[in-house]
């Protein structure tokens, strides 16, 4: 392939390490000046591509690109919830026109299953139209639901290790709170993200691998009713005098007035009721076997946008899957996602490989039933052995200036627009 420009975009929810992957892409691309020209970013994902809002990453200061490592969430180049559906032919035509107008030869998309599907469709369509464009996926999701349940497509997704570390720390601190205040507040219920996939709430067990806390974990996959959960909470209170509970936002506790995004995914943080509040209400209405009340707390986007809880292992791996995506691109290997595969053995080690985008787009990982306790209120030691290496052992090194975290600040240098203005199909009234 002749020298071409590279375009990267991202969609879906952000993560504490998403910008580490972005840094990996930018810095790796600079190593191939004879094959890769300018590196552009779609400003707010595929929506920015459709609007021809292409941020020039090659024009940024090297220091700011380096600072992406410890810059969380997606503020650097933005993300979106816009889905290009197969019937939106004008959107696909527009994307192809953008790729052609800006001499894009490498289209990288950072995200989950839906994003991998988009990357595959865009690259395939561009080649059908005679453009020499390679589509490469970069994995990302805190939910760890990309891939398959046998962990052959990807062992874990960048972002998960950091949210797992977050819940390790939050649960430890919640235990200290509950242990001190339980004569008045014997039950503390904490709600974790995760929709219908239990990897995030399951990570609370990493705070107590020896099972010394009065900790209960309720995953959506366990399919317990509110009454079932209350029964297990009350049994713990009778046995230990108190209980710390981590509940998945996707647990079936009745009508929550759930709001969905354009991908059809539930947005529990925007819904009328929360799972933890429903459980707290039920416990207090039916009474606890101890004096005092149940209290609850819902954790929201802080799970995916805090730099200080990021896992150093996760940061490194996110960077390397970004690098791997560029290596696939310059090798002419389109139609693949860069991936992380765990090597067998006691010592944690991974290798970076590739898997077909079509395989990722058509897959869905679930939480293994074998990792859920028989009574549905905990997770197994096998899960602990799987997840513990992902959270790392050290605090991330986050630069601080005058008491404030120093994040990357990218200059608003955009490519000149070459096409007429365009309104994405789904945004038209």
Automatic annotation (TrEMBL):
Keywords: Cytoplasm, Glycolysis, Kinase, Magnesium, Metal-binding, Transferase. Residues 6-326 form the Phosphofructokinase domain. The record marks 140 as: Important for catalytic activity. GO terms for biological process: fructose 6-phosphate metabolic process. The record marks 114 as: Important for catalytic activity and substrate specificity. The keyword Kinase applies. GO terms for molecular function: 6-phosphofructokinase activity; diphosphate-fructose-6-phosphate 1-phosphotransferase activity; metal ion binding. It catalyses: beta-D-fructose 6-phosphate + diphosphate = beta-D-fructose 1,6-bisphosphate + phosphate + H(+). Pathway: Carbohydrate degradation; glycolysis; D-glyceraldehyde 3-phosphate and glycerone phosphate from D-glucose: step 3/4. Its main location: cytoplasm. One of its GO terms (cellular component) is cytoplasm. Mg(2+) binds at residue 113. Its EC number is 2.7.1.90. Non-allosteric. Substrate binds at residues 141-143, 193-195, 249. Diphosphate binds at residue 13. HAMAP family: Phosphofructokinase_II_B2. Catalyzes the phosphorylation of D-fructose 6-phosphate, the first committing step of glycolysis. Uses inorganic phosphate (PPi) as phosphoryl donor instead of ATP like common ATP-dependent phosphofructokinases (ATP-PFKs), which renders the reaction reversible, and can thus function both in glycolysis and gluconeogenesis. Consistently, PPi-PFK can replace the enzymes of both the forward (ATP-PFK) and reverse (fructose-bisphosphatase (FBPase)) reactions. Homodimer. NCBIfam families: PRK14072.1 (NF010675). This is Pyrophosphate--fructose 6-phosphate 1-phosphotransferase. It comes from Oligosphaera ethanolica. The gene is pfp.
